[in-house]
Every structure is written in structure tokens, then in C-alpha cells.
């Protein structure tokens, strides 16, 4: 079922016309479909239904309380990377016993908060972090459950900015060092070894990098067993891509079948940390065409959303499909537009070379904006962040109010 459809020449999210959302909540506005979110979570989980598993939604992809709460009710765990994300998950009703804590720079305060919350596992990313976690846990009289994030050194075949499983990046520990660090961990009194973790990158659209990485992780699990270290879970990370234009990422069922086949008869729980795959295509960013402007060589549609609202095009040159919410059926000429925002940067674009028939005031939907859209937004140019709305059938809920300009400098003060 597609939750974003054209009905009576107007794009709808479930049963609600996007034009009515723009009228009621104004633009720019993020709109999510509850059924698309639910379906994504359920179909990802379905592939693992008869094996011990935990799907930990990567909060960074979309930390909206309403989305976290929806996933928590569906049984999700959460992959967090900061004390802020921990607090959000708890505020949204997430179960701390289903939280994995990733990230290369965990502070003592963040470790303490996570130990107090009694989370499922720390994904430790360096030998120094392991030592610090042991010290913090010892000071608190607790034992920290850990996995070591290993870099299997496989090419994720994705954008270099979002590839993380190679030897020479800041994430995780080198595969070759992992056994030694586990042996050190085994001697630490306030560390309990629970798992092995890996995450090789994001927006991966082929199956092979996942399988190659999993092979290496399984070899490590077996080597650990030979050294008397029994692993209870393998966290295979996130990274499954989505279709932004014509990509064909692996189907969830194909992914699950292949991973389970590799696991074989090993008695370990499988943990995953999908972000984008659960939310990316469940959200759009609505924006209004403010001005049309024509130069000698280019046509510009200047819209009211900008790089501060959706950073991916400016940051990664990422492609997002852009649709007119009510495609024009009159004689307006279709032109090739640069879709740009009002921010004072030449890199502030949402799409290049889009052929659209536009009139000022038209509403556009930037598609596939549910992941790393709102979560990476900023107040650059003192622009309030967009409102967020979730559609549930024929109901529409405001899940985050539009920021007010006064909010943006409320924490500031002038010199006396
Ligand atoms: C450790 C970790 N887990 C999970 C994710 C989620 O990735 P994705 O949104 O590509 O599934 C990320 C982001 O790449 C990450 O860094
Ligand atoms: N923010 C990135 C993905 C990075 C994933 C974080 N580890 C994106 O928008 O595609």
C-alpha cells in the first residue's frame, strides 16, 4: 500500500490532501504517514519473526517524540548516540532495556545516564572508551553490558560522507584489533561482554556489503567463542537504503533471509539499527513557491523551505523527488527549474533541473524527507524550524509546533 497517492489531481497522505495540510499548518511543514511508518517497522521485523531479534530504530534519523512513541508501541528498541537521544526515548515511552548506545564520543555524564537507565547495551567504539566505561561503572557500583563496534573494512558502496565501515574512519575499532580488546574487556570487573556490533554506512542499496560485513563479524564471534567469550547478540547496525529516485535497495525479506542463512545454527539474538529504511519514505516536506525568477540560462523556483529545513541536497548533493501537490492542468508551461530556498548560500538548493509547470503560490512536496530531514535542520539565517504533522487515516495531528522567531533568541542576552 502506498500512503502517498494522487487522488482527484491532488497528492494525499493517506486520506488527507496535502493542500489542506498546507492551508491549516502553513509551510514549510513536514508530514508523516502513520501507516507508512507502521508498515515499514512491521515489514522489517517480519523477516525475523521466528528468531530472537530486536529492531532498534536509529533515533538520529527522526527523533520526533510521536514517531518514537509509535515505534515503542510497536515493540521497537532504539539506537541512540547521545544523552539527549536517551532522554527523548525515555520521554517517548521507550523501553530502556531495548536501547543500544552507539557513538564515538560518549561523555562520562552520558555513560552515567545510560547506566542509571539500565540500557540493553553500550556499543563501545574504542579501547579508551572501554576503559572509561569500566571506570564510570565501577564508580557507580554497576556492570556495563557491552558490544565492541568493529570495522569489518568492507566497502559499503555509498556516498563517502556516510560510509563508516572502512578501516580509516573514526568509527569503531579495526577488525584486527577486536579480539585483543575483547580479551582486555573480559578482564574488566565492571564490564560484561554481551555482543559484537558493526555498522558499515548508510543508504546502502546492495546486499553484498551487508553479507560481507556479517561474514567477518561471524568469524569474530567464532574466534571469541574459541577464546571462551560467548556472545549473546550480534548487532548488525543499520544502513539499508531507500528509493529516492531509481535505486533498488534490497527488499527487507531478502535481507532477512540472507542474514539468517549466514547466521546458521548459532544461538545469538540479532539486533538491527535501521533508521532511514523505517522513516525515509514515510515523510514529505511541504513547501510553497514564493517566487519564480528567470535568468538568461536558468529558471528558479524560490520556495519557502531551504537548506536549513532539509540539508541533504546541500550537504551530499542528495536527490529528492519534488512533486507539485496539485499538478497544473491548465496551459502553464512546464519549465526546467532550479528549486532553491531563501537562505543566503549558493548551495541552498533542494533540487536541480526539475521540469514542473509552476505558478507562484503553488505547493510542492519534497519526497522521501522522513529521514535526516527535520533531525538535521537548523536555524541558519534565523529561520524557525518547520512544523511537523502526522496523518492517521483521515485524522491529522500536529506533532511539533512551528518554532516562533522569539524562541530562536530566547536563550541569548546582550552585554550589560
Ligand atoms: C551506529 C549507527 N547505527 C544506525 C544508523 C542508521 O543508519 P541508517 O539510517 O542508514 O539505517 C547509523 C547512521 O548511519 C549509525 O551511525
Ligand atoms: N545524515 C545522513 C546519513 C548519516 C547517517 C548517520 N550515521 C543522510 O542524510 O543521509
Automatic annotation (TrEMBL):
Originating organism: Methylotenera versatilis (strain 301)
Pathway(s) per entry: Amino-acid biosynthesis; L-lysine biosynthesis via DAP pathway; L-lysine from DL-2,6-diaminopimelate: step 1/1
Record: active site: 344
Binding annotation for substrate: 276, 312, 316, 345, 372
Assembly and interaction partners: Homodimer.
EC class (word): lyase
Record-given protein name: Diaminopimelate decarboxylase
Free-text function comment from the UniProt entry: Specifically catalyzes the decarboxylation of meso-diaminopimelate (meso-DAP) to L-lysine.
GO biological process entries: lysine biosynthetic process via diaminopimelate
The organism's taxonomic lineage, starting at the top: Bacteria, Pseudomonadati, Pseudomonadota, Betaproteobacteria, Nitrosomonadales
